Automatic annotation (TrEMBL):
Organism this protein belongs to: Pandoraea anhela
Key words, A-Z: DNA-binding, Transcription, Transcription regulation
Protein name (database record): LysR family transcriptional regulator
Keyword DNA-binding carried by entry: yes
Molecular function, one GO term: DNA-binding transcription factor activity
Family, per entry: Belongs to the LysR transcriptional regulatory family.
Taxonomic classification: Bacteria, Pseudomonadati, Pseudomonadota, Betaproteobacteria, Burkholderiales
Amino acid sequence: MLDIQCLKDFLVLARLKHFGRAAEQCHVSTSGLSRRIQALEIWLGAPVLVRSANGIELTEVGQRLLPISADAVTALESVRKAVHAEVAGRREQIRFTAPHIMSGLFFTSWFPLLSEPFQNTRFSVTSDHLGACIAGLDAGEDDFLVFLCDEARGVLGKVQASLDRTAYTMLTLGTERLTPVSAPDARGMPLHSLDVGTTTSVSLLGYDEACSLSWALDANLVNTTGLPMFRRRHENSVADGVRSMALAGLGVAWLPKRMVEADLQAGRLVAASSRQLDISMDVTIARRTGALSDSAERLWEYLLRTNAAQSVAPRPTVSAA
């Protein structure tokens, strides 16, 4: 089945005629963008571009696909915006967009805290990869973006330029930590230990290049000394998939602490190191600086006045970023 994101990426690439610049605008690596174009070509059954001395040129098939793709994307986005507007008009609504991990990690515990002050408000969450979430925020399809930022700025380093173009404001709602875990052996010790020394390679379970947790992990590992060499043979686009691979004993994974708390308590997973190798993350909410709906503005003022994320440990604060 063809993903509309492939058509969007194709349009960007056709306009910029450069894989590197197109990948940056699409918030994906060059190899990730190449895979998406290949998926489009497989679905279509023919190449849509060729590399030449002048850069990238569209094939005859690509030229035929270009206006159709533009019309299809415009039509689909128009329908989605119209549906969003209709739903918002039926009842008071605040629209959030967030990477997939935030649905189970944050919103399920945060929304109940808002139920009393916002009794007549409908909260909706659209989940996607962070680049698409920022695009939704920029287009006015969503009121707020909620995502995780690491201290090494691996995430903000990738997306801050895009957020700057939306003229945004951010608040910190709380904290989370990515912690390295492994399945245990028969003695309860990690099957994949980070304490074995730099001469022994360890299987690292990674995130897909489009996943913002991958950006945080890579930025923080660069500055961490005393780690073994890593073999990256397995990856997944969502944290749940990485957790499943860790439970299967395929390697060590940096996973959100709240996600694996029950696994650690039950002994299904254990700490992969005796050292403190957790990666600190801020739960961050962003909005455009322009006017939002009355209900969304009320929520923003509420966040400025109160601590509305008490379920996030340690005790969170709401502060200007």
